[in-house]
């Protein structure tokens, strides 16, 4: 079903029971909201059940058999994550509850220890709110200075301006590798070199990139990478922060509690080793275990083929939808600089109404500001409609999207707004 | 409104009734009062990007003029247009009561009074819970204008999850 057979999509779809269901009495589901969250294959769903049914116990503290088994299931996923992003050591992988928590962890545990008044943190205008707000909070507390790499009209970043903004006072560059609102792929490796020349560290928000393309932390030369399991076939409630060991070792804890300590007296405590230092309390054991299964699934497909499949679909979609009357598609036209995200405006029809008409035909897209209000402001739109693709999407589904958009134009035609 | 493919669109026609699309395409009392307003408020639905300004002129307890400005989805703009037609030439107490009645229609499915006329067409919005705040925006903004003025938001949450 895929254009050039980069993935066996028909076979993949059989692993996702939800894709067989109907919505609104007999309308088949066309799920194109993958940038919000992906669907889950039966293998992942089965392993969540398997953990609770056969192996449930708390980890890292029992001598009994179940506790050891659960610990191995949880820790096994750490190694899979490390291999997936080519981390030098699995001890550099910290499990959190989502990308937002991972970004906040850096802001608290690294930022509070290292940033002083006047220090600069460089972000970009295309960041998700979760890579803006933690730094604004720290700015208000510490008097740090935030700078933003501007977005050009095509949705890419102004790299000349980036060279000017990243300077001797820059302590951290924190940027997305793929915009959730536009799909823009950011040249993180190039920016990381600029930052390191100035002695700054580099944090990458990989929430959209890690699920959709091969990401190699050593090749990129970055210091931190944050991403979420639920956008890459895994369960909700599991996130990752990867960090270079020498940076992590200098960091103070984020949350205090069980697991993250070595010793506690009523006066003081000493911190556990990395990564346990950053994993206070009982984690989402079943979720982390099943995330390992999701990573196996993607690894077997091959991330290069995943990316190739999405480029093929995006290429087809741009051709199929780009010429519809009244449509404006945002983001880079160059497919090598763009993930499988198609954010658009339909003249005379508010995105919310577009989403409603699409939904009536079973087509699930996201409408709104996508937690990227600065991007919306720059494009001068209140919101957009966004279709986003993944491994199980087909050309037929792109056709359904195109027909539903045309229907929205007919339905609201002659609109005066 | 006819659709080329009946079936899937039946639910859509429940939401987008003809009279509603008419108010969306030809909004009534559109614009600004250019200094004649005695009361005004801004309303916003941050999650969707709906924005409205409601200006009214109140003379001896009666709304003699009303103007709606802004941009947003069809439901928010059409509902505000219908509201403006209803409250014009009515007393402020009566207008505020209509806001309450409208909210009960939206949130509790209460049958609207006969005098609501075309506004009844918005009753179908109740079946689409995420759109209720769109329909309510104009009415809540009017309430704010007749009260303390300033601005009102129908959705206090500021983020989604992606």
Number of strands of chain A: 17
Binned strand content of chain A = 15-25%
Largest interface: A-B, 40 and 36 residues
In helices, the fraction of residues of chain B equals: 25-40%
Main β-sheet, spatial strand arrangement of chain A: 4-10-9-8-7-5-6
Kindly state the number of beta strands of chain B.
Answer: 4
CATH homologous superfamily name of the largest domain in chain A?
Type I PLP-dependent aspartate aminotransferase-like (Major domain)
- Structural class from helices and strands of chain A? alpha/beta
Shape of chain A: globular
Radius of gyration of chain A: 22 Å
Oligomer: heterodimer
Q: Note the total helix count of chain B.
A: 5
Question: Termini separation of chain B (Å)?
Answer: 35 Å
| Estimated radius of gyration of chain B | 16 Å
What topology emerges from the helices and strands here?
The complex is a heterodimer of chains A (417) and B (162).
Chain A: H1 9-14, E1 22-23, E2 27-28, E3 30-31, H2 42-55, H3 65-84, E4 93-96, H4 99-114, E5 120-124, H5 133-142, E6 145-149, H6 159-165, E7 170-176, H7 188-197, E8 201-205, H8 217-220, E9 224-228, E10 239-243, H9 245-249, E11 261-264, E12 269-271, H10 285-301, H11 303-321, E13 327-330, E14 341-346, H12 351-360, E15 363-364, E16 366-368, H13 373-379, E17 384-388, H14 395-411
Parallel strand pairs in A: 3-15, 5-6, 5-7, 7-8, 8-9
Antiparallel strand pairs in A: 1-2, 4-10, 9-10, 11-12, 13-14, 14-17, 16-17
Chain B: H1 10-15, H2 18-25, E1 39-45, E2 50-59, E3 62-71, H3 74-87, H4 92-108, H5 132-146, E4 150-153
Parallel strand pairs in B: 1-4
Antiparallel strand pairs in B: 1-2, 2-3
Helix pairs in contact in B: 2-3, 3-5, 4-5
